[in-house]
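Quick one: structure tokens for this chain, please?
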Amino acid sequence: MIALAGAVMRHLGAQMVLRRVSLRSASSLHWPAVALGAVSTIRYQDAVGALKLAAGAFAGAAVTIAIMNYQEGSQDVPAVKTVQNEPVRNETVVYRRERQILQVDAGQTHPYTEQVEVSDDLDDEAPASSFKQSIKQALIKVGGFVTFASREAAEPEAAIAPRKKTGSIMDEVDDYLWEVYQRVPVKKDGTGDFTWKDPAAAKRMGLALQDYVITGMDPEFREQLYHAGKAMDAAGVQWSMLSAFRDDYRQRLASGFKASVGNSLHGGSRRTGGYGHGRAIDITGADSNMHEVWQWIDDHGAKYGLNRPMPGADPAHIQQRGDVHRIAIALRDSRVGSNTEVVAAKASTGKTRVAKASSR
């Protein structure tokens, strides 16, 4: 019906156009063109109308099919429950399958077997028991699995041994300062725990920790610390060291308020000359009484050629002060005696032992 009505309307429109054209004067020179335009208009309107009709039918069919599919899908698919804010769990599950029971040398049965692949390059003549023993030593059990032990667990790295005593007049001083250093095994301050830094620096230089932190300091400075420390001990002030000698590498690891690398009195290469010439420490209290230790240095440090130059910015920093050479010699004489021949004899004995040890 809709198509029939459209055709009738198009036919009436065409007749009206022809009537308008027939009213024009026969003497007009453009009537062929007008007639041709009218015919083209009729054809264009027919084509557009047909396309509109086809598009409408297609759209209606598509909507009908979509509605039918939605109704069928809603009946077949169950509703999915959505859980909000539920954490996603990422789990790994290992299933172990029971295998055939095997007999071993000891006559025991095991419901599970562990397989270890070994090299084919084995000595066929070696006893089986020796081979099994070597495998057991190379393997460790982790939970229910067997794996090869790490190299560190199998062969622990040997610690660097301290230097042997040479009979030097400084052995007494070094042993005491090492004991003081160990009174506070955990080295930490406002920047955090830095206990690992001294051992790392010592290992890098191939030295034992004692030889690094203590022997790395200047002998005269060690003499001053020895006598000042003994006086503090006698006064009931338990003291220790957070840091002693520091080379350039160790200075680079330091945090907080510090001198530039190479310019530290702790042992900077430019400032002091490096190992064996450190002339500063960071002092602390062995019983968390650091303020008492600092106050003692302020009151009595000058007698031993020591002071705290930066009590505000770096209160733990202790360094030499005054005529340190004269003070250090006087302190050493008070410890070993003023007889220079005895001192020279002890020093030469130490050199002789060092020479014998190096020749071996």
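The longest strand covers residues 280-285.
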